[in-house]
Amino acid sequence: RLRGCLENTPECYASNPDQTDNDDDGLGDACDNCPDVMNTDQTDTDLDGIGDACDNCLLVPNPEQVDNDGDGIGNSCDNCLNYANTDQNDAEGDGVGDICDACPYEAGCW
C-alpha cells in the first residue's frame, strides 16, 4: 500500500519495479508504511498509514506527521505546539504542557 493510504482500493497499491528497500526490512519502499526505519510487522496502531516505528503520534491519526516545534511529538498529540517539550510534562493535568502553561502547577489559573 502507498504510505498514508488508508483504504483498501486499487489506487492504494504502488508499482515498485526495482524493489528498493531503504531500511532492509524485506518490504519495498513503495509498500512500506515506514520506509526509512525497519519495521517488518508494519504495525500501525492509529491506522493513519504511518508505521508505529516512525509515527510521531502513535495513538492519534496524523498522516501528515506535522511537528511545528521539532520535538518529535506530532502536533496532533503535542501538548505544547510552539515550544519543544519531548517529555510532555503536564503537572496539573490540564492538557497544556508545563513549558507553555502560565500556571503549570495550578489548574484553572489564568
How would you describe this protein?
The chain is largely without helices or strands and 110 residues long. 0% of the residues lie in helices and 0% in strands. The protein has no helix or strand. The termini are far apart. The model has no long low-confidence stretch (mean pLDDT 86).
Descriptive keywords:
elongated
Terminus-to-terminus distance: 47 Å
Q: How many helix segments? A: 0
- The amount of helix comes to under 10%
Radius of gyration from CA coordinates: 18 Å
Uncertain stretches: none
Write down how many β-strands occur, each being a DSSP E stretch of 2 or more residues: 0
Largest sheet: none
**Into which percentage range does the β-strand content fall?**
under 5%
Structural class: little secondary structure
**Average of per-residue pLDDT values:** 86
Shape: elongated
Task: Set down the secondary structure blueprint.
Elements: no helix or strand
